[in-house]
Write a structure and sequence with these properties.
about 375 residues; mainly beta; Porin; 5 helices; 16-stranded antiparallel β-barrel
């Protein structure tokens, strides 16, 4: 059997067996802390503004190589007044690849987000996230449901898969959750009974827009369920997510598992998604893709990371596949400053019916500086 098929099968099996919810940026922290995303983020589904607890304690005391002393921690910016919390994410990247003619090397401002949270009461908040592109998130959030449940209404990224910052990861890129078209308008609800996390949302299904398309009167439905546990010091979670969207062009369904295993400093996270698109006049197209990360925490604030992404654009035929293997190191030398370096190897495999994947093969060096609060 082809090496890529063996690797893909093993990692896809891992994705099926182990799953969990994660924050938007550093998913492995969710596994290591064995907590849901709302431990560190204002948005219970993860991503965007960080909670005051994360700003004032977790990051300066738990995540960086250099810990702030009590005096330095007390000097951190408090909430703006008693009702407004500010935050930011700034990511500057450098790419270098001699084999990719479309992008040989350059600096890229991947992210420049400003977060504003208005705290109306202990249960009700309003959130605004504005980045460099035309996209944004703006929603109201109320914790009015049982089991620490919430209701969210506005424009936001639906709770599907891992909300990781690397938009080139196949589980984000191939699913369509790439700025500026990753947000949509609708409502979402979630509850957290015991070790379970359950969310569901209904949106227009017209990503990147503020309203439904004039030619489409159907809605997009997204659901997610996860269970988190620990057996003998081995942290794990089991769950999955699904998405269905019908437009005048056809129907699109994506579903699959996502997950992690974490033991001491070693953390493995995986997600596999299976997509089917039924297009009017074009028939049915079936594909699947997976993204995986294996990390080892050498010490507080320093991780060694390897990743594997795989994409089969046509499950019904041997028409070629694409993979990405990554090796890297990530460090938070000082609170709220993260740097990482990675080498990504993009490869294609040609099938009996010719190469369905037209993207070039290349090796890529990526350097990133991330400043956040």
């Amino acid at each position: 059997m082809n090496t890529f098929k063996i690797a893909a099968a093993i990692l896809a099996l891992g994705g099926i067996l182990f799953a969990a919810s994660t924050p938007y940026a550093i998913p492995r922290y969710s596994a290591r802390y064995e907590q849901d995303c709302n431990l560190c983020h204002q948005n219970p589904a993860g991503g965007g503004a960080r909670a005051t607890y994360a700003q004032q304690y977790i990051v300066p005391q738990e995540m960086a190589i250099v810990r702030l002393n009590e005096e330095e921690t007390e000097a951190l910016p408090p909430p703006f007044g008693e009702a407004v919390v500010l935050g930011t994410d700034l990511r500057t990247m450098f790419f270098s690849s001699r084999d990719d003619p479309s992008n040989p090397q350059d600096f890229f401002q991947m992210q420049g987000n400003l977060y504003v949270t208005f705290q109306m009461s202990d249960r009700l908040t309003a959130h605004l996230s504005k980045g460099l592109s035309s996209t944004y998130e703006i929603f109201g959030l109320g914790y009015f449901l049982p089991a620490n449940g919430y209701v969210k209404a506005g424009r936001f990224t639906p709770d599907f898969g891992w909300r990781i910052s690397d938009h080139t990861a196949f589980i984000r890129e191939k699913t369509g959750f790439v700025p500026p078209s990753h947000t949509d308008v609708g409502v979402e609800a979630g509850i957290y009974p015991g070790r379970f996390a359950l969310t569901a949302s209904v949106q227009n299904g017209n990503p990147g827009s503020t309203q439904e398309s004039f030619a489409d009167n159907d809605l997009q439905v997204v659901g997610r369920a996860a269970y988190r546990g620990n057996v003998g010091g081995l942290a794990f979670a089991l769950g999955g997510s699904a998405l269905r969207n019908r437009t005048f062009l056809g129907e699109r369904t994506v579903a699959g598992p996502l997950g992690y295993l974490s033991w001491k400093g070693l953390t493995w996270m995986a997600e596999a998604d299976f997509a089917q698109v039924d297009s009017a006049g074009a028939g049915t197209a079936k594909s699947w893709y997976t993204s995986n990360e294996l990390s080892y925490q050498v010490r507080r604030g320093l991780d060694l990371i390897t990743t594997f992404d795989y994409w089969d654009p046509d499950r019904s035929a041997d028409t070629g596949t694409r993979s990405r293997i990554g090796l890297g190191v990530e460090s938070m030398p000082y609170p709220f400053v993260m740097v990482n370096a990675a080498l990504n190897l993009y490869r294609n495999r040609e099938g009996d019916l010719g190469m369905a994947v037209r993207d070039p093969e290349y090796d890529e060096v990526v350097l990133q500086v991330h400043v956040f609060y």
